[in-house]
Amino acid sequence: QKAIAVRATKTFKDDLGVTRKNGDEWLVRNTDTETYILGVNETFLDTVKLTTLTSRQYCVILNPIGSDGRPQYGQRKLVKVRHSS
Q1: Which residues contact 30 (CB under 8 A, 6 or more apart)?
Q2: Could you tell me which residues come within 8 angstroms of residue 37 by beta carbon, excluding any fewer than 6 positions away?
Q3: Superfamily of segment(s) 1-50
Q4: What is the DSSP string of 6-30?
Q5: Minimal CA–CA distance to 80: which of 61, 64, 58, 65?
Q6: Alpha-carbon separation of residue 34 from 29, 51, 59 (angstroms)
Q7: Sorting pLDDT into bands at 50, 70 and 90, what band is 52?
Q8: Which Pfam families does the protein's record reference (predicted)?
Q9: Over the stretch 5-36, which tens digit does the pLDDT of each residue have?
């Protein structure tokens, strides 16, 4: 699966009601929308291959994005697959 990376060039509120500040970056996946047309306040950055973990894998994310939507520089986040019963 793939996604596109997008950057806000000006502060605005997107179609989903999320306030995007100048310089914010985010991914738009095909599970988010079937088609996506960039707005005037958005810039296309790149196409990104999504990474999927198996039940035996984990990853450590450097500088993860916090609940406020901002990068947490210098932090690490351990991600493991949750097992469903």
Answers
A1: 1, 2, 3
A2: none
A3: Major Vault Protein repeat (2.30.30.550)
A4: EEESS-EE-TTS-EE-TT-EEEEET
A5: 58
A6: 9, 20, 28
A7: confident
A8: Vault, Vault_2
A9: 999 999 999 887 889 999 988 899 988 888 88
